[in-house]
Amino acid sequence: MPESRTSVRDSSAVGRFHGATASNGQAVLEKEPASKEVKEEGFCRRWFQKACPCCCRRQSTSYDITNEKDADVTKNGEKLTPILEQLSLIVRSVDLLSLKSGQNRREHHTDRYQSDELIIRRGQTFQMELNLSRPFNINTDKLYLDLKTGLLPLVSKGTHVIVPLVEELQDLCWEAKIVEQNSNRVKLSVNSPANAIVGKYKLSVTTHCPKRESVTTHDPEKDIYILFNPWCEEDTVYMEKDEEKEEYVLNDTGRIYYGTEKQIGARTWNFGQFHEGILEACLYVLEKSEVPPSGRGDPVNMVRVISAMINSPDDHGVLEGNWSGNYAGGTPPTAWSGSVDILKKYHREGGVPVKYGQCWVFSGVTTTVMRCLGIPTRSVTNFQSAHDTDVSLTIDVYFDENLEPINDLNSDSVWNFHVWNDCWMARPDLPPAMGGWQAVDSTPQETSQGTFRCGPASITGVRMGQVYLMHDTPFVFAEVNSDKVYWQRNLDGTFSQIHLEKNAVGHCISTKAVGSNERVDITDLYKHPEGSEEERIAVETACRYGTKPYVYGSPTAEDVNLEVKLEGEGPRMGSDARLEICVKNQSAEPRSAILHSKVAVIYYTGVLKDTVKSERFPVELMPNEEKVIDWVLPYQDYQNQLVDQAALMLTLSGRVSETKQVLASQTIFRLRTPDISIQPLGEAYVGKEASAKLTFTNPLPCALHNVVLRVEGLGLRNLHPITVGDVGKHSTVTVTEHFIPSLAGTRKLVASLDCKELTQVHGVADIVVYFFLACQFLLKFFMNISVNLTQIFLPQSNFII
Asked: Which of 145, 270, 324, 331 would give a disulfide with 163, using CB separation of 3.0 to 4.6 Å?
């Protein structure tokens, strides 16, 4: 039985047995003289005894008992333990239902981990069973769970979690609910929030009954491991497609590409994220980073930490890099074929860096750690990969006056190939549409904020040349899309640009295809087609933020304005989306440009889903002319593309031919959905049935299926789902809702629509609830009495009722 503390009286908190002697592990209480009278304590003494029990212990015939492990309490030789257990509520055992084949592990997609620990994903419920000393009484007993992670758990930091028992789970926070009770056994359903800290938690259970309290001691075999959850829509690592989650989270083998762009080789890599001991090794890597556990709920922060800890130069991380060709004292990088031995060796030897690694080894180990913790990740190979050492965002080659290379200045380089990682996550710290795949590089090349690491850098930001975005976007941009610039030294020691090579880096960017061992080219995710105007705009935009912004020159004038306007309140769902593109020439000269437009669906988290429509069109402007271009997105183009709470983003870009001015604009807009109209029917009174009419019109030219209206109102009624069924195109549905108000005053009746084809439809109405007539009569009667009494006894006062 776990060690616990029980008492019959509050004074047991003293932790001693007054008048007791110990014998053979038993506490025997002395019998008070029968003739001694018990005096009733006064208020002051009772208060003083509670304030300082050590100084003022009671003298009474009652028993103050603190249980000792495996000890029976007796009086006159009779055991009192059964009596105490009837009063106490003690947790005999905890079953976390953690078997690999069990419901918890299967529902959380953790049944492949070679461990019988409870491994779950945040933002999702799980079950556990408690075996108690007696049946749980929901009316008088209290119970809560304690979860702690890290060396110094604090509630304020989210590392000490108190999980209360609730009647209904809200799915937004830590909470537990009794879902089954059978005699002394209680089954709990426990929910964690989607932003819970990832790591290893120690569990204890606290129980309260009217007179006693007990806390189970921590059992090392009852730890709970919480991971990121790509299956949970509220988690920032949520990934929509099941086949992609299967590949980027659950696949424990993969392919890593190497060689040259014309001779691409492939090797199989065993990631082994589910292998026995790997989860513990990954958590050990986090502990070695000395990053506090409170920062382990944010995937952006976690990725940065892991990127730094996979290499060893500044924090004694997992792998020591070696490009010398001499691998004495370690394993040659080409000899590794998986991550398991590397991580287990690092863990087993107490954090001594493993020898040796190069880029594909760093990437393979990074993939293992990320997938093990639940972050969707893939290894990516870039052929002709640039290494920019001076943040110029160009690869610079220097010659002397005789066109001989100046080796001391030629520090930039281009690798035949380089392997890094893409990780999937939303980026709430960046502007919209920057979520999705993020580039992460664990190979130690350049420092980021003083540490050898790189990323996460938004691939969308890289593609658009927005190198001012965090983290390390300039370095990744230079790897895939920098130009090679040739410089010659002049007689006066200055340098002049003599040649520009535009298609020098970033070729055949490759990763393993989803669901097969084929190679897939993802170069178009990192940059626009080489040589296209969009690609040139991205390069020149990026270089303006580098150390050599003058390489491409500046526009001779910036006198053309570009603006997008919404008509009225914006487009409506089910209709064509119409926007106005306003282009204004503020100069006295003609201007011309070609505008590129692209509209894409984005999640509310800022992650891009799909491109809906792309087009390009010329714009010719006379001096001081303003043109308004009607832009239309037909309903048929977007009807099957929208997702829950999604919006559309229109991106415009172009260049003014005469001045080389770059035009760019991004506009996010949503398609307005109809409201549910709620109309009260008659007056509403407390305790008397009232009604309201709910009306909704389907705005789509197609039917809605399995429509459910959800109605609720504080003080009016609990949540009530109303099954409507199918609603035809442009059809109107009317439902009458009946409810019995429980509170007077102005209350709000809220309704929302639930169906697959249409989201974000809701409505609200104020319902004025009166007291029932009899109640009003009594209230008025007592108010009149109060006024009369006031006039009699307080004639001079300004007393107001």
From this structure: 145
Please name every residue paired with 686 in a beta bridge, in sequence order, or none if there are none. Answer: none
pTM of the model: 0.73
Concatenate the DSSP letters of all residues of 526-561 into one string.
HSSSTTSHHHHHHHHHHHTTSS-GGGG---S---EE
The helices-and-strands tally (H runs, E runs) of the chain is 14, 44
Of 656, 646, 667, 464, which Cα lies nearest the Cα of 581?
667
User: How many Cβ atoms are within 10 Å of 113's Cβ, its own excluded?
Assistant: 20
In this structure, the number of other CB atoms found within 10 A of the CB of residue 300 comes to 21
According to the model, what pLDDT value does residue 568 have? 78
Catalytically annotated residue among 388, 441, 472, 559: 441
Sign of the CA dihedral with 496 first, then 499, 501, and 505 last = negative
With bands split at pLDDT 50, 70 and 90, how would you rate the model's confidence at 61? very low
Known catalytic residue at 359: yes
Rounded Cα–Cα distance for residues 484 and 246 (Å): 39
Is 287 annotated as belonging to a binding site? no
Residue 370 CA to its chain's centroid (Å): 14
> What does each C-alpha distance from 317 to 184, 308, 654, 735, 770 come to in angstroms?
49, 7, 46, 63, 69
Please tell me the predicted confidence (pLDDT) of residue 4: 39
Please check if 129 is assigned to a binding site.
Answer: no
d(CA 141, CA 734): 46
Bond into 456 cis (ω within 30): yes
- Strand spans (E) along 682-788: 684-685, 690-697, 704-713, 717-727, 732-739, 745-754, 762-770
Please state the length of the chain.
801
The secondary structure element, H or E, covering residue 755 is none
| Cβ-based neighbours of 482, under 8 Å, separated by 6 or more | 386, 388, 393, 394, 395, 504, 505, 506, 539
Sheet holding 762-770, edge to edge: 684-685, 762-770, 745-754, 704-713, 717-727
Q: Which helix (H) or strand (E) holds 149?
A: none
Give the position of tokens 């790189």: 454
Q: Is 483 annotated as a binding residue?
A: yes
The residue to which tokens 């009746």 are assigned: 749
Do the strands 394-399 and 483-489 form a parallel or antiparallel pair, or are they unpaired? parallel
CB-neighbour burial class of residue 531 (10 A; exposed 0-12, middle 13-18, buried 19+) = exposed
454 is catalytic: no
pLDDT on residue 759: 80
Active-site residue among 347, 418, 471, 507?
A: 418
Least confident of 266-275, 369-378, 458-467, 746-755: 746-755
Burial-class residue 519 by CB neighbours within 10 Å (0-12, 13-18, 19+). Answer: middle
Cis peptide before 552 (omega within 30 of 0): no
Cβ 394 vs Cβ 546: under 8 Å: yes
171 annotated as belonging to a binding site for a ligand:
no
Phi, psi of 656, rounded to the nearest 5 degrees: -75, 125
Of 353, 421, 426, the C-alpha closest to 609 is 426
Q: Is 6 left (phi over 0), alpha (psi -120 to 50) or beta?
A: beta
Angle at 379 (CA atoms; ends 374, 385), nearest 5 degrees: 145
Nearest by Cα to 420 from 458, 455, 464, 388: 455
Residue tagged active-site, from 209, 232, 282, 359: 359
| Per-residue confidence band for 262, with pLDDT thresholds at 50, 70 and 90 | confident
